[in-house]
Amino acid sequence: MKKFAVNFSILSLFVLISVGSGCAVMGRRQINQPLSAINVSKLKAGMTKAQVTELLGAPQDILFIRKDNDPVRELAYVYNHTTTKYTGVVFAFLNFGNSDENQDRVVVFLNADGIVEHIGATLEGQKTDYGFPFGS
Amino acid sequence: MRSLRKLLKSRTLYSLSGGILYLLLMGGCALDIARERVGTPLDIEAYEELKVGESDLGVSLEKLGAPHLIERENDDSETHLWWVHRDLADINFRFQFPVSVLGYRHNVFQYFQGDEQSNTFHLVFDDAGNLLSKEVQIAEDYLELDEEGVEGRFHISPRVEYSFLLDGDADIDDYDELFHRGPYFGLDIGYQPVAPLTLGLNVGYQQYQGRHLEDAQVPTQFHDLELYSAEISVRLQVPFEVFSNIFDYQELRRVLLTEDPALYDGWLLYVEGTVGVTFNEDVPVEIQNVRTGDFIDDGLVLSNTAGVGIEYSLKHMSFRLGGTLRTLDAFESGNSPLADDLEELNIWGVSASLSLKF
C-alpha cells in the first residue's frame, strides 16, 4: 500500500454529513437533589417530623388538611427529585427525539399529632436513560 | 424502437432517475418520531393484589411506592391518591420543496399525529386509611407490552449485489467503459433494538474486471478494480400495512413505536443508508501489452450507500431484495499517463440478502 488517499474532499464530505445532514443531541436536566436511599430506608412509622427532616431535610411540599372547626394540620411531607434525559438523532430525512423522566419520590404521611403513620417511597431517578423513542 | 433502446442505455436516464430518487429521499420527505415518557411504568400485578375493604394505606404505599398526586375531600372523609405514568408520542411526516441540504426547506405538506397516554391508578382511602375503592386506566398497547416485553434481535446477513451501471467520469472515459460490471459480496452484522430500526456494521468485497479497449488508438488493458469496504448502516423497515393504516393513529403508533421485533412478519418496505470507508487496490494499466504504471493508486476513500427494497420477514429469518446506489469518493490517480483527474464513482445495482435473526 503506497499511501492513504485521504484528501480534502473526504474532509469536506465528513463536514457536510456532520453539519448539514445529521447530528446527535444529548442532554440531562435535574430538579432538586437526589434522595439518599440509606436515609430513606431509615424512615419508620412512629418517628416525629423533626426526625424526618433531620434525615431528608426540608420537604419540597407539605400537604395540609382541615376538618370542620379544627385548625389546619399537616397531612404529608413530600420529597421529589426529578431527572430527565433527552436524546435527539437527526439524519437527512429521518429524525428521532426521546425524553425520559423519572423521579425519586417520598411521601411521609403524618397523624394528627405529627407522628409518621405511613411512608411511600419510589427511588427511580437513576433509572433515567438516553435512547430511541421506541419500545416500552 | 431504436431510440427507446438508446434511451434505456443512456446515462441520462439513470442520472435523471437517480436525481428523482435523491429528491424524494434526501430532500423531499422527512419523518420525525418523538417520544416523551414521564415516570416509571406502573406495577399492574401489585395493583391487582390490593383488595377493597382489606388493604390499607400502608400496604398500598408499600406495594406501589409514593403516589404522584394526593388530594383530600373538603369534608375530610376521603383521601385520593394517584399513580401516573405518562407516555407521549408524536409522528410527523413532511413533504418539502425546494430541496436544500443546508438551507431552508419549505414544508409543502405536513401530516402530524400526536398522542398522550396517561396510565393511572386511582385509590381512595377513608379517614382511617382503609381502601374504599380503586380504579385503573391503562392503554391497551401498554398492557401488551407488560405481558410480552420488547427485546432486541441480532442479525447476521450475507449480502450479494450485482451492478448494472458504473457511473462517473474516469477522465479518459466513463468508469462503465473501463470496467465490466461486477458483484459485491458482503456480510452485515446488525442489531434491531425495536421493530422499525436496525443498526449495523457491514463489510464487503467488490470486484470489477478491467476492460480491454480495442477501439482506442493503442490497445489498452485495464486490470481489475478491487474494493474492500467497512461501513455502518441504518435501516428503517415498516410493514406495508402502515400505509393502509396511516390515519389510524393507534395502529401507526403500535407498528412504529411499540411493536416487538419478533412479531414483525410478512412483507415490509425498507430504506437503508450506510456510511464508511472503502479501500481500493492499485489498478495497473497496460498499453500495447506493456505495463505503464497504475491508472488508480491504492487508497482509502469515503463511501456511502442508499438502498430501498422489499423484505419478507419471519420470526428468525428475513429475505430482502432491492436496489442500491453505492457512491465512492474520487480515487487517487496513479502514475500512468492516462488519467490525473478521476471523479467519484456511483455504482447502481440490485441487491439480495438473507438475515438470520436471534
Describe the structure.
The complex is a heterodimer of chains A (136) and B (358). With 136 residues, chain A is α+β, with helices and mostly antiparallel strands. Chain A has helices spanning 8-21, 37-41, 49-56, and strands at 23-31, 61-65, 73-90, 94-110, 116-123. Chain A has a domain at 27-83 and 98-127: Beta-lactamase Inhibitory Protein, Chain:B, domain 1 (2-Layer Sandwich). In chain A, strands 1, 2, 3, 4 and 5 form a five-stranded antiparallel beta sheet that branches. The longest helix of chain A has 14 residues, at 8-21. Chain A is elongated, with a radius of gyration of 25 Å. Chain B has 358 residues and is an alpha+beta fold. In chain B, strands 6-7-8-11-12-15-16-17 form an eight-stranded antiparallel barrel. In chain B, strands 1, 2, 3, 4 and 5 form a five-stranded antiparallel beta sheet that branches. Chain B has a four-stranded antiparallel beta sheet with strand order 9-10-13-14, with no helix packed on it. In chain B, β2 (69-72) and β3 form a beta hairpin. Chain B is elongated and about 105 Å long. The mean pLDDT of chain B is 82. At the A-B interface, α1, β3, β4 and β5 of A face α2, β1, α4, α5 and α8 of B. β4 (94-110) of chain A pairs parallel with β1 (29-38) of chain B, so a sheet runs across the interface.
Helix fraction of chain A by DSSP (H/I, runs of at least 4) = 10-25%
> Could you say what the CATH topology of the largest domain in chain B is called?
Porin
Mean pLDDT of chain B: 82
Instruction: Say what oligomer this is.
Output: heterodimer
Distance between the termini of chain B: 51 Å
Strand content of chain B: over 45%
Number of helices of chain A: 3
Properties at a glance:
heterodimer; A: 136 residues; alpha+beta; five-stranded antiparallel β-sheet; elongated; B: 358 residues; 2 domains; 8 helices
In short:
With 136 residues, chain A is α+β, with helices and mostly antiparallel strands.
List the helices and strands and how they pair.
The complex is a heterodimer of chains A (136) and B (358).
Chain A: H1 8-21, E1 23-31, H2 37-41, H3 49-56, E2 61-65, E3 73-90, E4 94-110, E5 116-123
Antiparallel strand pairs in A: 1-3, 2-3, 3-4, 4-5
Chain B: H1 2-9, H2 11-28, E1 29-38, H3 44-49, H4 57-64, E2 69-72, E3 78-96, E4 107-126, E5 131-137, H5 140-148, E6 153-167, H6 175-178, E7 183-194, E8 197-208, E9 212-213, E10 220-222, E11 225-239, H7 241-244, H8 249-258, E12 266-280, E13 283-287, E14 290-296, E15 299-313, E16 317-328, E17 345-357
Antiparallel strand pairs in B: 1-3, 2-3, 3-4, 4-5, 6-7, 6-17, 7-8, 8-11, 9-10, 10-13, 11-12, 12-15, 13-14, 15-16, 16-17
